[in-house]
Write a structure and sequence with these properties.
By secondary structure, the chain is mainly α. It has helices at 5-24, 27-47, 55-79, 91-112, 116-127, 132-139, 143-169. Helix content is 79%, strand content 0%.
Length: 170
């Protein structure tokens, strides 16, 4: 089945946006989610147009994808709540939070020292949660090369973090 993309998006994009915003509570984030779902639908349709029997089937697939992405985003956001939002309940917990904050600061410092290409690979793998196959497909770099590069980057990060922690305690 061929989709009339402009008509499809004109009709269902507002519905998808409202769904995403209702689940996330964030207008900017919901726009990103709708864009991700649109791209996913475009790719799925390009790879196998016959899987969509009708425009309603494509609509359901699209809105289900928006829902899943919005729920995932909400889960991720709840996991990343800032430590300051919850007051410490004991001196041990306060010390543990201080250690976590120090490690986060050290990691930020070490990540900024990375080469921009290495930093991009780390961002795609760990922030955007892309697989090596996805990165390979979009960059044209073989998966084995990306895997070796990722292992080397992570090794350098570990070494730099250990050095940073030793300098902090010395």
């Amino acid at each position: 089945m061929q989709l009339a993309w402009e008509a499809f998006l004109r009709r269902y994009r507002p519905m998808a946006h409202a769904l995403a915003q209702g689940l996330t509570g964030e207008p900017d984030e919901s726009e990103d989610i709708v864009q991700q779902a649109t791209y996913a639908l475009f790719r799925a349709h390009r790879e196998d147009a016959e899987r969509f029997e009708s425009a309603q089937h494509a609509r359901n697939w699209f809105l289900r994808t928006v829902r899943n992405l919005a729920l995932q985003s909400r889960r991720d956001r709840s996991r990343l709540r800032r430590l300051e939002d919850e007051p410490p309940t004991s001196p041990d917990e306060e010390r543990a939070r201080a250690e976590v904050e120090a490690r986060q600061l050290a990691l930020t410092t070490v990540l900024r020292e990375l080469d921009p290409h290495d930093r991009e690979l780390v961002a795609r793998r760990f922030l955007r949660k892309e697989t090596l196959a996805q990165v390979s497909e979009s960059t044209g770099v073989p998966i084995s090369t990306l895997h070796s590069r990722e292992r080397a980057i992570l090794g350098r990060l570990r070494t730099r973090l250990e050095r940073h922690e030793q300098e902090g305690t010395a």
